[in-house]
Amino acid sequence: MSGRVMARSGSSEERPSRQINVILRSAEPPVVSQSSGESEAAAGTKSLPHQGLFADLQKEMNGLVGLEHVKELMYEIFALLQIAAMRSEAGLLSGAQVYHMVFKGNPGTGKTTVARIVAKMFQKMGVLSKGHLIEVERADLVGEYIGHTAQKTRDLVKKALGGILFIDEAYSLARGGEKDFGKEAIDTLVKAMEDQKNQFILILAGYSEEMDFFLATNPGLPSRFPIQLDFPDYTIDQLIQIAEGMVKERDYILMPQAILKLQQHLLREKCESEHLFSNARHVRNIIERSIRQQAVRLLSQYTSGSPGKLELMTIRTEDLKLDKK
Length: 325
Description:
alpha/beta, Rossmann fold, 2 domains, 5-stranded parallel sheet
C-alpha cells in the first residue's frame, strides 16, 4: 500500500479536485473561493479555522532530511481535513476517516519523530483532543499471567486516548505463536480500535519484513491500518547532512577532514552491517561522542587560559572516535 490518502468528490464539477491539487503543491493554507453571488460580508465569515497552521508544520517537516513521501502524505491529510471542514460548513456529508498507521523501516529512519509531528497536526486540526504520544514496546504490553496482558494493554490505551499509541517493534507481539501472551495484546488492541473508535490513533512500527509477517498473522489487521509508510535507509549524503545539522544546532562545526572521515566510516558501516545499521541514531551517537572527545582534547591542550570561540566550536578528525568500544 502506498500510504496515500485519497479524497474523492461525488460532484461532476472539477473544481474540488483542483483545490486539493493546489494544496498539495503549496506551502500556504488553502483558500476557499467564493461564487460571484455571495456578498463580501459572507466571504469574510468563511475564513479557514486553521489559517497558517500548515506553514508551521511544514517548517518542522522541512527540517527533516529526506522522507519526501512522508511530507507528501502530511499535505494530503491536511488537505483532506481542510476539505472536510469546508464540506461540513457547506452542509455536506463529511465522514470520519481512519488514521491508524504502520511505519516500516530500520532503526533511526525517523519513525518516532514523524509520529510526534502527526500527533501535533491531528491535535491542532481537531482530530485528537490532546495530541500526546505514548511510546511503548512488547514489555509494556505483555503481562506474566492470563488476563494480565489485557489489563496492561487496556491501561495503555486509556493513557493514549486523545493522542497516539506508538508501538515500536510491534512484530514481537506475534513471535510466540498462539499460546504467547503477545496474541492477547493484539486481540485487546483490535477490540480497543473498535470500542474507542476515533478516540486515539494506533501506530505500529518495526522492520519492514517483520512487520509484513506480523500483519499476515492476523487477516483482520491490514485493513485496520489504511496508512502504511515505508521509511527507507538514509543515503550517505543524507547522513552527512543530518550530522551537520546535529552539530549546527549545538553550536559546533565539523572540519572538512572530519566530514570526509565520517563519510568513509558510514559507507563502510552500511556495507558491513546492512540490516543492523541504525542510520541517524548511529550518526547521533558519533556526534555526541565526538563532542565529549573534543572537550577532553581542549582541556589537555589549554591547561591555562581558555580556547578561542572558533576552537570551542570546532570538531576535528581526532575528535571522531569511530571504533566500536
